[in-house]
Design goal:
Radius of gyration: 23 Å
CATH architecture of the largest domain: 3-Layer(aba) Sandwich
Order of helices and strands: EHEEHEHEEEHHHHH
CATH class of the largest domain: Alpha Beta
Distance between the termini: 50 Å
Largest sheet: 5 strands, parallel
Number of strands: 7
């Protein structure tokens, strides 16, 4: 599988299943997408901003729900494998991406694995095991969370710096300077300390790269 990031803004995601797994998937995609959860009953769980529709689709009728909602992704998350398989089949027949939430191991063509993610906007780090070990994905996420902490501020800082240096430095020097900034521990510490002048630390790093101490 090849990892990709997809912008779901303004798109519809259909989640078939209102249990705890369906709720978790709904919360995840409701960060961006318009999420519709289809189930005869719903777990006492947080579904985020997802819309819940009480219905009991069987293997014969689930395809009609896919046609009616026109989603970009179908999540099969019921405890009825016949319904899950029908939802996945309907999605594949229509060229729609699908996620079989309760299936591990080898994945079908057009299938989607929802990875464990760490967010420090605009930075997103995803960990996946191809659907084989969600427990390992979660454990690795916990190990990586301290590493990613503060990366969002660093991304914002270097994006602004990149635009500024574009007017002052040739491309190779600019790339070297940005690499030096993101690898410098003192810049990271300055971002984490309100009392430290981050721009002064960045200027020191740039001076080391360019040899200009002015």
């Amino acid at each position: 599988m090849i990892p990709l990031l997809h912008d779901f803004t303004g798109e519809t995601v259909l989640v078939v299943g209102g249990g705890s797994v369906g709720a978790r998937k709904a919360r995840r995609f409701a960060r961006e997408a318009d999420v519709l959860v289809l189930s005869p009953s719903f777990a006492d769980a947080d579904f985020g901003s997802a819309q819940r529709v009480r219905a009991d689709p069987d293997p014969e009728s689930v395809a009609a729900w896919v046609d009616r909602t026109d989603p970009v992704l179908v999540v099969a998350a019921t405890d009825d494998e016949a319904v899950n398989d029908a939802a996945v089949a309907a999605a594949r027949e229509r060229g729609i991406l699908h996620n079989h939430a309760n299936r591990t191991g080898d994945r079908d063509p057009d299938s989607v694995v929802v990875p464990a993610t760490i967010r420090d906007d605009p930075v997103v780090v995803a960990v996946a095991t191809g659907g084989r070990s969600p427990a390992l994905s979660a454990a690795l996420r916990e190990r990586l969370e301290p590493v990613v902490a503060g990366a969002g501020e660093m991304a914002t800082l270097t994006a602004d710096l990149r635009a500024e240096l574009k007017e002052r430095m040739p491309p190779e020097t600019r790339r070297e300077a940005l690499r030096a900034v993101v690898r410098d521990d003192s810049v990271w510490k300055a971002l984490d300390s309100p009392s430290t002048n981050v721009q002064l630390r960045v200027s020191d790093v740039l001076s080391d790269v360019t040899g200009d101490s002015s």
